[in-house]
Amino acid sequence: MNMIIARYDEIGLKSKFVRREFENILVQNINRVLSREKFGKNKVSREPGRIYIYSNDRKVAERVSKIFGIASTAVSEKKKLDLEENAEYIAELWRNKLGSDKSFAVRVKRKGKHDFTSMDAAKIIGKSVREVTGARVDLKNPDKEIIIEIRDDSIYIITETFKGYGGLPTGTQERVLCLFCDEKSFLSTWYALKRGCDIDVIYNPELKNYVEKIPYWAAYRKINFVESGLNLENMLLESFNMELKGIYCSLTLEEIETYIEILRERRMPVFTPLISFDKTEIERKIENLLRIK
Fold first, then answer.
1. Are 279 and 286 in contact (CB under 8 A)?
2. How big is the chain by its Cα radius of gyration, in Å?
3. Each residue's pLDDT tens digit, 82-100
4. Domains of the chain
């Protein structure tokens, strides 16, 4: 059976009750994205530390890796655990992918009660792969890594992995207002979503091309968009009169001194996630994010 494994990290630090609530929201976000982007119906299930999507479409794995809360996704083949038999099958999969001029390492993660350790499993699989392919084992700097997960009575053979952005699932934190008054506001808004916040957006209509990309990163959760021709100073002052849990804006370290007196007027937290980045870093991050879709 082919499936996609979605892993999270920061959620795992929460209490059992909170983790369950965050997992629920994350699964809802995954289902919404797959539905909105016409990936078809894909069954989604979960267990502690893992979310399973019953699909072998690498495009699904790649897209889900872009949903906040996900640390990585992996396309995998699930089989009943029989280590000797599994090792032979894995070796055959790698027969034409490795040769005597290549090196490899087997990485095994294991959960559950077994009569062998992760190292034992790696040795058994590695032996079969070496015998079939003639490749040598190199645990420090291999040409290829063979990634395996063993969970209870199942083994998952990983064929491709996509790194995610982690963070918290969007919608697990309170709603905040994002001020979208320049190009770098795209990045400060992105960080609000990554922190798990639902958002509303006040934006300059000249930046509509950037604003239109926000729903993709928000997993298509509800966002209220309001056009405004105000600059950042006036956006802040106007926002301070609203009933808000917080405000995200694009102020940088070079700009913050100019706004000190204005910020003293605030009645709620004002978050400045770009404060630690210089101009080059901000431009590079935005450029990389805009390439994704």
1. no
2. 23
3. 999 999 999 999 999 999 9
4. 2-78 (3.30.70.1510), 82-152 (3.30.2130.30), 173-291 (3.40.50.620)
